[in-house]
Amino acid sequence: MRASQLHQPTLREPPKDAEVISHQYLVRGGYIRRVAAGIYSFLPLGVRSLEKVKTIVRQEMNRAGAQEVFMPAIVPAELWQESGRWDFYGPELLRIKDRKQADFCVGPTHEEVVVDMARKDLRSYKQLPVNFYQIQTKFRDEMRPRAGLMRGRECIMKDAYSFDASVEGAHKSYKVMYDAYQRIFTRLGLDFRAVEADTGNIGGSMSHEFQVLAESGEDNIVSCDTCDFAANVEKAPLPVKDFPDLAAFGSSPEPSLEHTPGAKSIENVSRFFQLQPRDVIKAVLYNADDQPAVAFVRGDHEVNEVKVKEALGVKSLQFADAKWFKERTGLHPGYVGPYMLENINLASPRGSAPRSVLDWDIRSMQTAVTGSNQHAEHHYRGVVPARDLADAQYADLRMAIAADPCPKCAGKLRAFKGIEVGHVFYLGQKYSKSMNATFLAQDGTEKPFEMGCYGIGVSRILSAAIEQNNDARGIQWPVSIAPFEVAVLAVDPSDLAEKLYTDLLAAGIDVVLDDREERPGVKFNDADLIGYPLQIIVGRKAAEGIVEVKIRKSGERLEMSTADLVAKVVKAIVDARMGTAIQLGAA
Ligand code: ATP
Ligand code: MG
Fold first, then answer.
1. What whole-number distance in Å separates Cα of residue 472 and Cα of residue 292?
2. DSSP string of 328-389?
3. pLDDT tens-digit map of 309-359
4. Choice from 211, 460, 462 to test ligand 1 binding pocket (greatest atom count within 8 A of CB)
5. Residue of the nearest CA to atom 25 in ligand 1?
6. How many whole angstroms from 360 Cα to the centroid of ligand 1?
7. Quick check: CB of 107 below 6 Å from ligand 1?
8. 160 in Cβ contact with 131 (< 8 Å)
9. pTM (predicted TM-score)
């Protein structure tokens, strides 16, 4: 491709709504343009990079034995009613009507459609296992679309669904996908981790997210510095903490009720008592299956809703509305504490104590400040959990953080931010049962399929890759995702640039020739902003058969003779296509 014929509208300034770097560079580099919130057009460069990602995904899915299908984006409501998700899915599901007023949705995911497909044509165990995948535009009416392609409303996804005759078979299919994902993200040149993930309301233990490590990520992940344990903090269990020996504390006075005007937040309360947040007990108020409930964690910890839900053994858990909570319990939200919590109906004839559960770490607090329950603007100080909260219910309730103990070995956890680019999930019979999708098993009975589902955020990968590969000048694409692998920048007019371009094309390199009538500075800036991994600058020394070769990612610049240049470039690019850095070897 010649840059003179390429639509590459690069911009000097990022759009106003672009906070994260990948969003800025995707727009400035001429990859995407916003159409509406979370909805984008892909320009030629964007399509090229997107197609490269799709190709790698396809190759590895096919290699793993999955078969490509293509399902409709518009799905009749009946299928979603059958699975029960029409009511359950909430406002992320875009519901539409056709001219006959029949209900449809724009598919955010395709379990229903694929299960319907399977139950029509897969009749016998002899046809199993099978794995269907597609690459398709999904629509999710996200509450907060953000960061360009990172969290769009429209997004391009690869979704796959495996059908097996047995649990063991499904586990095998899961492993095959897990391995394929390792290859895909390696080939894409991403620094990623496969982490254990929460399985939500589906249950079971098998779910892994593939997380690209990046500061701008929305997910918090931890990994062990010693063993191979890695998990989303939502999932990472923490070991039990027992009560310390009370005798070791010496004798301390009874808790005292203190007037704490204006002190409500953990920060203010700890400042008021000249203590640290870790010395205060934080209360998080919930509506748990329509009953008031409280989870208590140390002030410097974050509560983990997945764990709270499990500890309380409830189906639904939402943050409590303050007014509702007060009406139901008589407690002042903001001043709820675990000490004397059961006695509150003495304080308020209307209320009854909420259910409560405390995090294990509270047990080892020597002395704590807590809400007082009876009154607003009052706290107890000097609560000794080992003495005063010995009978409470304790559980693992908080998010794991850096330096926490590993749940699998004696190591310590490290914390990272991640961008979820893929998700493998063992589904079991959740959809096959509700949609009555069965096959004839070997023992002659009809059985529901054992399923797994496997997603990859194809468009999100572009954002994730840029978050990991950029500098102040622009994008530093891995070779496998770059819109062009090599750019030949014709700085001084010469036949050499033209010849290098045609030779590289002939050798199968995806190369662009910047033959525009622009100043050299413009060409350099565009090449760096767009992020061409290898740039060949044909300048003043062209007549002597010498060019400058620049590796975008490392910033390395070499003067090279044109004699064996094409062979060297081809070798370097072909090697780097598997996801590694470009190595040019000795010039
Ligand atoms: P998230 O927690 O980020 O909302 P999810 O759990 O809803 O993701 P899945 O339903 O597992 O995501 O979808 C499969 C993959 O599709 C995800 O791993 C992610 O990479 C991608 N994806 C999901 N939602 C979006 C979105 N709104 N924009 C871009 N990519 C997305
Ligand atoms: Mg989501």
1. 50
2. HH---TT---STTGGGHHHH-TT--PPEEEEEGGGGG-SSEEEE-SSSTTEEEEEE-HHHHS
3. 999 999 889 999 999 998 888 888 889 999 988 766 544 556 678 899 999
4. 460
5. 151
6. 32
7. no
8. yes
9. 0.87
